[in-house]
Sequence to fold (139 residues):
Amino acid sequence: MTTQTLTPAQLKLCATYRNLGLWTLQGWLAMFFIAAGYAKLTEPMDNLIALMSWPAMASDGFVRGLGGLEVGLALGLLAPLVSWRIGRPVLLVSTVGLATLAAVMAGVHAIGGEWGLAVVNLILLSMTGAVLIGRRPNA
Fold:
């Protein structure tokens, strides 16, 4: 078995592609969670109940608050666009929050028999996990 040593130029190119991939994931996650949060903030409860079963068991304030939390955490994913030094901790906290939210909601949807929504949340969980691992300090 042979090993190959990458040149500094190849290492820099790999880091560039990795950074581009992470920013792409962050953008997709931000778009998804902003849209989901906006829907929870603005849609009538009857529409939300028709799309998902759990809002029927929660108060209006809880559903609206969850929507606001989703929007806020999603915007935190984009905080490094303003300043990497200040935005990176915000990004990490937002990523942990969104991963936790996705994990909890995957369970809620699975318990409610909404398998498609549970799978979507598991995909979101894997995406947030990839961002968290890729953006952790000294990564």
The first helix runs from residue 8 to 42. The mean pLDDT is 94.
